Amino acid sequence: MSKTYKTSHYDLIVKMEREHFWFQSRNRLLAHIVDRFIPKRAGKTFLEVGFGTGVVLAQLASLGLNVEGVDVNAEAVSIAKRRVHAKFYRSSLYSFIPGKQYDAIGAFDVLEHQSDDRKFLAKCYQLLKPNGLLFLTAPSGMWLWNSLDEYAGHKRRYEISKLLDVVNKAGFNVLYWNYWQMFTLPFFIIFRSRKKKLSEYLSVPPKIINSFFLFLSYLELPFFLRFRFPIGSSIVLIARAGLPTTTV
């Protein structure tokens, strides 16, 4: 959800997301989480903020949700319309006035792009129905920060204490959180240290390596909602609109 994203970045993402282990495993993980936290989806509305190419919206629509998306980038809207039947809004979240509230909102690797993340979350809160659900993913650990974060337009990576604090202060009750991509983290660190350009980062690894990483990522899935992983390159969080409380 960034005006600074170049058309070439979207072109690279569209080409890679059908094959790249990270996109494939994230989509499967999000479907798993949504299935668990929204078991009765008929008639439920889901708004994705910063939907990019629409790949997650397509996944959510396949689960039976009524999906909509808002993104500030015209290229995102154009690409997503070709991928999934949904209602799209080209708008900044802060000026977005749909005239209704949603059962659930998702912001997947979007929060780290916001200058004021608390303001962003407060707006999400306003757009949710009472007891509505918020689904978030964000990169973890400032110790992993390098030039690729800058190229991607990140303002920060999140320590879990910081993310829990800002989500709670926005009025949410955190239901669950966990790290993701624990098994691939050592390779992630090595890979990022060798890649100096965003175009290099947005490329599919060689097939055998990509398949191996996909296997490692899928290994996490059966345990994701059962055990708290000690570390990972991303954080996944689910929260409910309500009074902030001590997190689980």
Automatic annotation (TrEMBL):
The keyword Membrane applies. The chain crosses the membrane at residues 174-191, 212-229. Keywords: Membrane, Transmembrane, Transmembrane helix. This is Methyltransferase type 11 domain-containing protein. InterPro entries: SAM-dependent_MTases_sf. The keyword Transcription regulation does not apply. Pfam families: Methyltransf_23. SUPFAM superfamilies: S-adenosyl-L-methionine-dependent methyltransferases.
